[in-house]
Amino acid sequence: MGLQMHKTISNRVGITLLISTGFLALLFCCFSCPVLAATPIEPPFTTGVIGTHAPADFYVVDIATDPVGNIHVIDPFYKTLTRYASDGSKQLTVSDPDFNWLRGLTVDSTGRMYVLDPVKDKIHIYDANGNKLDVWLGPYEDSMDVDSNDNVYVLLWANNSYQVVVIDPSGTELLRFGSFGSGPGQFKKPLDVAVAPDGSIYVADEGNQNVQKFDTQGNHLFTIGSGQAGPLPGEFRMPTSVSVDSTGDLYVSDRRNYRIQKFDSDGNFLLEWGSYGTG
Q1: Over the stretch 7-47, which tens digit does the pLDDT of each residue have?
Q2: Radius of gyration, CA atoms only, the chain
């Protein structure tokens, strides 16, 4: 299942007021003062080891696995797509000069890799060897998923509304649904989309504080969540990510409640875990 990183450091005339018991002094730093060079702001890299083979600095914003268990990650700072084997050994890295700010990633049954760049409104497609196959033009948002037929599900912003679009591997649009608002089938700030094994579609919507389920044709089935932020089971404070397991159970990352909630395929609450802290 999103974007803002430019910072500017400017030099300005400084005025310092010194006030003490016996006097008031005004000191002005005039325009002739030396101009200090801006210090580059480093991204908040996470240093770590993947498996036992690949020490690296990386800032991962999305991760996906393929049918043989390889792990794919995208790094928006280094502007790379990297694939690791299940033991952590690096297999390939794609660094495309057309990358700007990578945000979404999914991999289909053939190992084909889809990389979403919402700043450039593009989805870049590569084969399992890292060769570029195609580019789809948006405007796309943050999240993608793929179904058993290798159709890609992606969120986009178009015609003043958020929508879910389904695209086949050739790039042909198969389905589009959704509009802006708070009713069934409407979205205010969707952050993630996930496809269940039966082809049904879930969308996590931070703006409406809910998760909606749709059938394979985009028809609204039900909504989980009251529409208002809350701490109770089945309520959310910023639902940011959704995932569906092989049995059809749904998992929702409930960000500001610091928990994961689990639901069955009918939307019934099953359990939750997680809390605020570092333990």
Answers
A1: 233 333 333 333 333 433 333 333 344 333 333 333 333 33
A2: 23
Amino acid at 252: V
What pLDDT shows up at residue 157? 82
How does strand 179-180 pair with strand 186-187? parallel
pLDDT digit string (tens) for 146-158? 999 999 999 988 7
Strand pairing of 259-263 and 140-146?
unpaired
Degrees, nearest 5: CA angle 146-208-274: 75
Mean pLDDT of 132-152: 93
Q: What does each C-alpha distance from 136 to 51, 154, 190 come to in angstroms?
A: 33, 11, 20
Helix (H) or strand (E) holding 123: strand 122-126
Q: Determine the Cα–Cα distance for residues 166 and 235; give it in Å rounded to an integer.
A: 28
Residue 58's CB: how many other CB atoms inside 10 A?
Answer: 17
**Which pTM does this prediction carry?**
0.77
What is the DSSP secondary structure assignment for residue 33, as one 8-state letter? S
- Kindly report which listed range (34-43, 81-90, 224-233) carries the lowest average pLDDT score: 34-43
SS3 sequence, 167-213? ECCCCCEEEEECEECCCCCEECCEEEEEECCCCCEEEEECCCCEEEE
* Residues facing residue 18 across a β-bridge: 25
The pLDDT score that the predictor gives to residue 208 is 97
* Structure confidence at residue 59 as a pLDDT band (50, 70, 90): confident
How far apart CA 107 and CA 92 sit, in angstroms, is: 14
The residue behind tokens 């058993």 is 148
Residues contacting 32, CB < 8 A, separation 6+ = none
Q: Which long-range contacts (CB under 8 A, 24 or more apart) does 65-74 make?
A: 65/107, 66/107, 66/111, 66/128, 67/109, 67/111, 68/111, 70/111, 72/105, 72/107, 72/113, 73/105, 74/102, 74/103, 74/104, 74/105, 74/115
